[in-house]
From TrEMBL:
Keywords of the record: Lyase, Magnesium
GO molecular function per UniProt: terpene synthase activity
GO biological process: terpenoid biosynthetic process
Protein name: Terpene synthase N-terminal domain-containing protein
Record keyword Magnesium present: yes
Coiled-coil features, chain-numbered ranges: none
Record-annotated Terpene synthase N-terminal domain positions: 30-202
Organism domain of life: Eukaryota
Annotated spans, Disordered: 1-22
UniProt cofactor(s): Mg(2+)
Family note: Belongs to the terpene synthase family.
């Protein structure tokens, strides 16, 4: 973890909210059961080799250069949700540090989903990212823009990101109220698997 980033978060703010943050139950099944099912201790050499090859592929995907560092965010999130990020701690930390450094350069055109996902992942890893990035999603009256209500995936990510708030971050307090109301309204109209993800997060 970048010590500089950790200090930015730790020194000017108290600890992140201790509320139990619900997390949407996503289904990133691109690797099937390979990582999900824990192998027996007596696995054969061929299976062990398959595991190592798969880990090498994932590691390469995390580290592979891209034009926009924000493109890495959904993949890193999927790896974490699968519970296998401990295999790639250094690679994930390095990529998030790059994303943190590029935040100001890549923020202007990012949508709600990307902005919220980046905020959540960086806060989870101790980087001192500011919640000011969400100001662009408010209108002149200081309310969240009505157009956001059609972006359910973005609302869901903002809902989760809001639980990484610290004391005094009023915009994230407002975001929890706004997203809870909008996601509750949208839930009956959603299709699977998004309906399941939203329902799980709101529990």
């Amino acid at each position: 973890m970048a010590s500089q980033a950790s200090q930015v978060l730790a020194s000017p703010h108290p600890a992140i909210s201790s509320e139990n943050r619900p997390k949407a139950d996503f289904h990133p099944g691109i690797w099937g059961d390979m990582f999900i099912i824990c192998p027996d201790t007596d696995i054969d050499a061929a299976t062990e080799l398959q595991y190592e090859e798969l880990k090498a592929q994932v590691r390469k995907m995390i580290m592979e250069p891209v034009d926009d560092s924000n493109q890495k965010l959904p993949f890193i999130d999927a790896v974490q949700r699968l519970g296998v990020s401990y295999h790639f701690e250094k690679e994930i930390e390095d990529e998030l540090e790059n994303i943190y450094r590029d935040t100001n350069n890549n923020d202007a055109d990012t949508d709600l989903y990307t902005t919220a996902l980046r905020f959540r992942l960086l806060r989870e890893h101790g980087f001192g990212i500011s919640c000011d990035a969400f100001n662009k999603f408010k209108d002149e009256a200081g309310n969240f823009k009505p157009s956001l209500t059609s972006d359910v995936q973005g609302l869901l990510e903002l809902y989760e990101a809001s639980y990484m708030r610290v004391h005094g971050e009023d915009i994230l307090d407002e975001a929890i109220s706004f997203t809870t109301a909008q996601l509750t309204l949208a839930l009956p109209t959603l299709n699977h698997p998004l309906s399941e993800q939203v329902g799980h997060a709101l529990k």
